[in-house]
Design brief:
The structure is a single chain. The chain has 349 residues and is an all-alpha fold. It is built from 13 helices and no strands. The chain has a domain of 241 residues: Glycosyltransferase (Alpha/alpha barrel). Helix 5 packs across helix 6.
Length: 349
């Protein structure tokens, strides 16, 4: 049986191949991926940057900067607050990898824009869209993660931590986390109660990374326990893991343009929780998913489809981003200074 070092080396090779295949779909004229959408592209950028952080590769940092320079005119904002949050998190990760403050400053503008759509309807929280018709899980999860991430990278900050804590406290009390410890899609606008919407995988994921960041900021270990409770529920759910393989609820029908990104987002954030709590069973879960997708959902060009259990259906930027997130979550960590130490060093310089 291969040891952990061998397994990590194999995982790194798989991540390298998945990243290369994703970049074959990239359009340098636009800095985007023509086969997928605007917000999905933010997640593709994040996946590439996580690949860099986890493997030590610097292969695609120039392309990340192309994406930034060609699309920064509106600060990566639009009428959807969740779209803005995805881009804000991408630029936080770009700052982590490169140390270039222009990325961190953009992430701040994105977080500030999102918070401008916070009000007291349903007791608090941030609206999904600028038309203020729906308060949902993903927008508020993204804001918690983005705002806490900014606090952890801005020496002397108090504002972003206060905002992250405020929105997390509201989210926790909102009822969107159901009795099974899974996150439904949002709130009924009239009753402000959990709307019973689909438990998409990405809604189970982003809050994990958010709570890791808030716990890092505050030292509150109870937040990691809450994250573990949600992660345990998601990874043991028979409906989300038929046959032990992570499966989006839409896969039996049609996941459209958005759904193919969801599972990658889940495993990315589960990986962040696993690294904060090494020794948990989540490492084994991630390895199982990666082995399964590699064996059953990959073509001869290292492109992945929607169904990690197989069979391969088709390739596009969102499917490939999800697969890259999965392979990166199991890849080796480079033997360098920790990201937290690098951030602290930048803050003191």
């Amino acid at each position: 049986m291969p040891d952990r070092a061998d397994a990590s080396a194999h995982a790194t090779k798989r991540a390298d191949a998945a990243a290369a295949a994703l970049m074959e779909m990239y359009d340098s004229d636009t800095g985007l991926w023509p086969s997928t959408g605007w917000w999905n592209a933010a997640n593709a950028v994040t996946a590439l940057l996580d690949h860099s952080a986890q493997t030590g590769s610097r292969a695609y940092l120039d392309e990340v900067d192309v994406t930034f320079e060609k699309n920064e005119q509106d600060d990566f904002t639009n009428e959807y607050m969740d779209d803005t949050g995805w881009w804000g998190l991408a630029w936080v990760r770009a700052y982590d990898v490169t140390g270039d403050r222009k990325y961190l400053e953009m992430a701040q503008r994105d977080a500030d824009y999102m918070y401008s759509f916070r009000d007291d309807h349903c007791g608090g929280g941030i609206w999904w869209r600028s038309d203020k018709t729906y308060k949902n899980a993903i927008t508020n999860e993204l804001f918690v993660k983005l705002s806490a991430s900014l606090h952890n990278r801005i020496p002397g900050d108090t504002v972003y931590l206060e905002r992250a804590a405020e929105v997390w406290d509201w989210f926790e009390a909102s009822g969107m986390i159901n009795d099974d410890h899974l996150v439904n899609d949002g709130l009924d606008d009239e009753t402000c109660a959990n709307n019973g919407g689909v438990t998409w995988t990405y809604n189970q994921g982003v809050i994990l990374g958010g709570l890791v960041e808030v716990s890092r900021a505050t030292g509150d270990a109870s937040l990691l326990r809450r994250a573990t409770q949600i992660a345990d529920a998601a990874t043991s759910s028979a409906s989300l893991n038929p046959g032990g393989v992570l499966t989006e609820p839409c896969e039996a029908d049609d996941c459209g343009a958005d759904g193919p990104s969801f599972k990658g987002i889940f495993v990315r954030n589960l990986g962040e929780l696993e690294r904060a709590l090494p020794g948990t069973r989540f490492r084994g879960y991630l390895m199982t998913q990666a082995r399964t997708a590699y064996a059953n959902d990959r073509d001869d060009h290292d492109r992945y489809g929607l169904h990690w259990a197989g069979p391969f259906d088709t390739a596009d930027g969102a499917r490939q981003q999800s697969a890259l997130d999965l392979m990166v979550a199991t890849a080796a960590r480079p033997p360098t200074t920790s990201s937290a130490s690098r951030v602290a060093a930048r803050g003191s310089s």
